Backbone:
């Protein structure tokens, strides 16, 4: 294993920590989280770890977790290390001893919880997509703006901005390393719906999930593409498809599904796949694909940016790597290089392990917690803001509108 | 180096060749080629080599090469081994001692030469795209059908069907290995126009080239996608773009360019990039991208097919490999495998080198020559036929129509 | 993002946790860790996280951290979440409220601490290499055996056995998937000593580190190769080299270095690189390389195993992947497949994220903590045991002996 | 497809060819080839193609092919385009109308044929390994030196120096791009002997093949490593192994095998695999592995060179690519880059296809023919010379000696 000199490290560590002893304790940031399934576990890991790895101005405290089922919520609290349990998010939001509300529920409850939390003077972290409709997202954005003027911050959880490799890509684009942008090529490929017998979960029902691949995967890639490009989409042309329109109901889970057939199946009411092309405001072209039917692709969020001076490419299935082609080099020695994004001068990496010792998926949530804590402490508007989430929502709405209107090119509302 | 037993090989070779001595000589197939630049060199290599590697029913003879400039044509004949030279394609077509006319000129002359050659009773091989317009392609297809009834064959040069890896992919799709098709993802990425100072060659002028990336690269990927899928596109929605609209004229080459500016520049009148999405007749979705602005991508023709039972992926920059995911395997051991397409039971490979000793780009032309010789000798309709070339032309026309009509979904004419 | 059905997950989680409420609390496993630099941070992460992710029979408690410098140790305790601080490891070992001593110091103190801890009735986890000499390792192994008869377990920290991909490889070898072994090819490549101005840290001094690349990197690959092969090395032939024999002293760190020159430089007294070949007991051949001079390779621990029925390959720089070639498949479709080791039926993965959401380096320490907790609770001899660590030490000693004796083939002592 | 401007190309071609018409015809280089199996086919392709692609000072003529079996030799002549046939190599060597003898037979006849050809005043190209013993190679080298003084050249067929990517690597090493060399890591992995039922071909018999993997694969990698490093090996330490010692006889091929068992099997009398480590004269370390038992590796000749300023890596299974790490770049953007070695300023590439249109295995023989023609025309000593072949032979002899002497480090005779 590669180590820096441990003596040196000890000295450095001692020095960087020494003032703390003398100073007053860091104030806490007391987090209350709503939801405790997949995203809840990931956010828990983020809150628990961020202060152990980074020097933070506030100490995150896992104060309360909230879920409707008291037993399950209690179990999640024990598992993930949350101090207390609530079964009604309204009670959580009303508590005086909570500073930040972290919303990890399905999209249909985001707006209601976020608005209440902001109204109660809490900082808010809201999972993506921000909401199920543009209207909800607009209301949330207005509330976030108002709250910001009162010193409260609101962030949307596009965690893939916080992979060190994507953060490095953003930095390189901002530095001008790829020059004038020509093409952005993005796909988010998964395969968990390939089997027609996979059951009809809430993610396949419009009333809860809002949309299918589009809102789940498409939201991520629209945000990431615009973030890396440093500019917004101007319009899109789209196709969507639902390949398998009827699926078996999950065992014992017939709560509130409208179109239940005699055979224990129900209608899939969201898209299985969404393809769209578009133009950025600068004139660069973009293509997007979001699907859950790409057999063998498990979590292949891929993005490539081609500019006049160079190109960048990333694949989430190899998240510690960034491909970079420097177009200004002599052709004889040019080529896409694989940057192993584990060096101390790479984003977030000075706090982690020696070069070559990679990070994983969950670290995006550690970095998200880190960045949000800084924003709270410094009163800065966090990125991505609710306004960013709203803008992504508008792109998704334009995609749906284009798909309904025979793929006609549809401008994004400003 | 890995060798089969050479004694065994000698015996096999002797046996396979022995009958020849007793039999009458193989009849010749006398080829006359029009054009002698890049494609001419590649086709020459194909004709010269095919009979040295494969057991062919006819012996290809490089009988005549044709170019307007006598000196240059003579030089090309010497260089590539053609027996005689013509400076007028009409003279070539009129010769009695030519059996097959191989058309390697820019697209604007394909129709005229092909129609004359077919009328003169020649077999025809025509470079892609088949023609610059659907109307020309229709006329060529009608003529090819008529000629076929008289025993003449006509083929269009979509050589990328003849990479062993793509031919293997086709075989695997036909065997049902990927099952019901869901997604086809295709791109053809080059970067030779990134520099705005690259000169205005004939390929950037609509009157000669017909279109830009679309006809040059797009034609290849539309054909390959439909060939591998085993089905046709039903409709498309498209965006096209010309990023750099004015370019310097090539040195000393101001022949017949209309819009020449005072500064020695001229208008680019074709597309730089074309993006389109579409639906196959089965309902599978497809996305296509053709561009000459993908910095660092030199000849990246990439195609991925996702089906209910598996997936296949190919990249022309690694043309000896095919990626295959078998979706029926247990997840624990499943993954995309890199098939090194160099085994003796892979398409075309029994005639070549031992496993792992790869082929190159030019071998597609050797294989094309081989397949065409067989079609001629056996009176079989070659694939891809002019009708296939016409259908690709119709897809390209629908792409252009959609791009002009605000990307609206445009059905492909049947 | 791909999610399992969250409702289902909630139910599962609630069920799996429900009994806990009724049952008595899980007993704690109180850990005392000696050392707090790089390895200390990694082990802290492991102890802190294991019980949050896995269902463990005991709850790890970060009870005490020990370091000579009180201020630095206090800072480390605060940073990593350890409850108390000791400045003398003897005091730590003597404490009644410590169940397990985790030794993260340089190799020259392993034996003394481990022997004391075992004598004091503690379980022990000892970082690799087990010791700086075979004699020390033998004493430690005897003590571990004695302790085991009294219900105490001792494990050596070869954490790379606990990458899911290597654990999967072991499982596949044990299942016979690669058949009779022919070749094992292993390298551990880093590059942090390429610069001759990199300072003379303790890792480059024989009296503290024992050896250089050999003990640091070589120990890992010898253990991993034998573990994956499921058999031991019989003998080795070795070359070692120190490319840069004098290096600048680290700033302000001239404590106890013997050969300090006038110019503030000191002698490198360990190997920079070690190459060796060997034979396994089955007759399979092996090659090993450990170096800190492989420019551009950051943490490239690579291992490939070739057997009569198949092959496996792994690279730590892509730790979520395992390459597998199934030699029993028809050649037409065979190829090395990239298994993304993130499926729920892969080792350790049922407790983590959905497929395609990869893990990182530090998770090996989480898994190590998990496995050790189980061993403690169940009174099982943990793997790798001190005896395993001793055997690795004997291989390293044979390497050194061979290198000193002109590379002559040197059997491994049994 | 990417094209240069075809008009421009036509002009260039016309100009480059124009003088030819005026000048006297290029003189021929009349080649007589001994042997016509795998290597014979590859060399034929080389001789036939070189003058069609490159501007050569002499025109290669496929004058005569020689094989003991008249029918088979006749068939090979027809297949590959050789003008005449001989059945006795002595007759070939005696012919006045042959300028160069190309020896493609097994190693046991190289010396006799080469000595006779040189004595007869022919230029010679001899397949590798140069001979089966050092003594033979010494005699051949003396004869080559004497012939050179009379204007005859002799070259040994280490064709892997002539992959554009390896030639580029050599150029970059010579330019100092990787700086002082530290490590060379080489393997040549094939798998065609994995099946114990693969028959006992001549390549597995010491009296014909000289050695097994060592002479066949090891000779290639020793030559390539020394060529790329630009220096020679000083000594080696080796292990060899024959995993399967008895194999079935090939059908109907029981000519002259001594140890034929009752069951139609015979003894394998060569090595199956050879592993060796070594030191270069500069002190750099090297490791080598040659095997025919690396299941799934078909033709994986891999070499990596690590130097103080950078690294290079190559794999023959991806022969159009070279990996390069520039160690002088800032770590933030450094990484191994994949150079697609298809640019016009790459070695040999100005005569071939546009960027990204790769070459294959057989092109190494085209390049070999090209380089040899130049050497003949210019009276230059070709590389690799017989002296180079002899030196490789000495390395192989040292490997065998070390393997016999318990792997002891064995210096290479100067």
Residues:
């Amino acid at each position: 294993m590669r180590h820096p000199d441990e003596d040196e490290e000890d000295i450095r560590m001692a020095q960087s920590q020494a003032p703390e002893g003398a100073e007053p304790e860091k104030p806490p940031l007391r987090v209350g989280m709503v939801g405790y399934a997949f995203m809840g576990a990931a956010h828990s890991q983020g809150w628990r770890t961020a202060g152990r790895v980074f020097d933070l101005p506030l100490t995150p405290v896992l104060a309360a977790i909230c879920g409707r089922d008291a037993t399950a919520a209690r179990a999640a609290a024990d598992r993930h290390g949350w101090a207390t349990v609530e079964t009604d998010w309204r009670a959580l939001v009303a508590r005086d001893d909570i500073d930040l509300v972290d919303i990890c529920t399905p999209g249909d409850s985001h707006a209601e919880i976020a608005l209440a939390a902001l109204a109660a003077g809490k900082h808010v972290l809201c999972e993506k997509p921000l909401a199920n409709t543009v209207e909800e997202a607009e209301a949330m954005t207005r509330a976030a703006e108002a709250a910001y003027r009162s010193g409260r911050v609101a962030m949307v959880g596009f965690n893939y901005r916080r992979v060190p490799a994507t953060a490095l890509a953003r930095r390189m684009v901002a530095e001008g390393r790829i020059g004038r942008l020509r093409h952005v090529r993005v796909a988010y490929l998964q395969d968990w719906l390939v089997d027609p017998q996979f059951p009809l979960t809430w993610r396949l029902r419009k009333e809860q999930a809002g949309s299918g691949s589009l809102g789940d995967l498409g939201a991520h890639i629209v945000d990431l593409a615009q973030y890396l490009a440093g500019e917004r989409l101007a319009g899109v042309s789209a196709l969507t498809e639902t390949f398998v329109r009827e699926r078996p109901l999950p065992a014992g889970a017939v709560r509130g599904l409208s179109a239940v057939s005699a055979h224990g199946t129900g209608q899939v009411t969201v898209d299985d796949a969404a393809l769209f092309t578009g133009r950025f405001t600068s004139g660069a072209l973009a293509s997007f694909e979001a699907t859950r039917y790409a057999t063998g692709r498990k979590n292949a969020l891929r993005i490539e940016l081609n500019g006049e001076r160079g190109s960048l490419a990333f694949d989430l299935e190899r998240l510690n790597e960034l491909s970079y082609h420097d177009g200004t080099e002599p052709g004889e020695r040019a080529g896409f290089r694989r940057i192993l994004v584990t060096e101390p001068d790479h984003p977030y990496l000075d706090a982690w392990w020696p070069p070559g010792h990679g990070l994983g998926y969950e670290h995006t949530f550690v970095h998200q917690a880190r960045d949000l804590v800084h924003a709270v402490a410094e009163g800065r508007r966090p990125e991505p803001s609710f306004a960013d989430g709203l803008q992504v929502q508008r792109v998704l709405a334009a995609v749906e509108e284009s798909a309904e209107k025979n793929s006609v090119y549809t401008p994004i509302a400003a």
Observations:
- Chain C is about 35% helix and 25% strand.
- Confidence is low (pLDDT under 50) at residues 1-23 of chain C.
